[in-house]
């Protein structure tokens, strides 16, 4: 699968935002730093915006975790209907033409909602509904975008994969009769 880099910004932001909702009480600054890292323009996060954005992040987390493709699409459609109000092509800042899903002068919350839902939708068209996932390690609640060659990624990170292998080895050892 070829990934469209202009679109991937919004997809990666969606994953990071979803994961941020699983960390202990993210502050306005935490959220703002995340937006700066993803090159979101005018990223100032007020207390009210923080609440709305984290609510949205929880909904995104559910889209990533949903294994049933039909239901995943329904959940995302719901988010899309609330957010992507205006779609147009743009080539701002010398970038290749890409889609924006909102008006440039929309407030931060609306822009974040639109870019995450819009980008995830384009991504799911290309990935045939696949390649979003939740970490297979039981104690981990992170979600991820699977950009691997074969699209069979199970863990959010190599670290979780290693820990899980150790855990499984231990529980097998425990089951062995003495
Ligand atoms: Zn843009
Ligand atoms: Zn994990």
Architecture overview:
With 178 residues, the protein is mainly alpha-helical. The protein has one domain: Jann2411-like fold, CATH 1.10.3300. It is built from six helices and four strands. The strands form two sheets. Strands 1-2 form a two-stranded antiparallel ribbon. It has a two-stranded antiparallel sheet with strand order 3-4. Helix 1 packs across helix 3. The termini are far apart. It binds zinc ion (2 copies).
Quick take:
This protein has helices spanning 5-20, 28-37, 47-65, 69-83, 108-126, 158-175, and strands spanning 88-90, 98-100, 132-134, 143-145.
What labels describe this entry?
6 helices, 178 residues, mainly alpha, binds zinc ion, two-stranded antiparallel ribbon, two-stranded antiparallel sheet, Jann2411-like fold
Low-confidence runs: none
- CATH class label: Mainly Alpha
Q: Based on the structure given, which CATH architecture is correct?
A: Orthogonal Bundle
Mean pLDDT: 93
């Amino acid at each position: 699968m070829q990934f469209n880099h202009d679109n991937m910004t919004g997809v990666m932001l969606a994953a990071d935002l979803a994961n941020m909702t699983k960390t202990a009480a993210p502050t306005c600054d935490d959220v703002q730093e995340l937006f700066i890292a993803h090159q979101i323009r005018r990223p100032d996060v007020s207390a009210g915006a923080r609440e709305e954005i984290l609510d949205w992040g929880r909904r995104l987390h559910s889209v990533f975790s949903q294994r049933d493709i039909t239901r995943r699409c329904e959940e995302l459609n719901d988010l899309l209907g609330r957010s992507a109000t205006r779609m147009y092509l743009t080539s701002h800042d010398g970038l290749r033409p890409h889609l924006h899903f909102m008006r440039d002068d929309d407030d931060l919350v609306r822009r974040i909602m639109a870019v995450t839902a819009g980008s995830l939708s384009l991504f799911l068209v290309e990935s045939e509904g696949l390649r979003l996932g939740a970490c297979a390690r039981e104690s981990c609640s992170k979600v991820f975008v699977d950009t691997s060659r074969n699209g069979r990624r199970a863990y959010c990170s190599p670290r979780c994969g290693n820990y899980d292998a150790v855990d499984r080895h231990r529980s097998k050892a425990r089951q062995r009769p003495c």
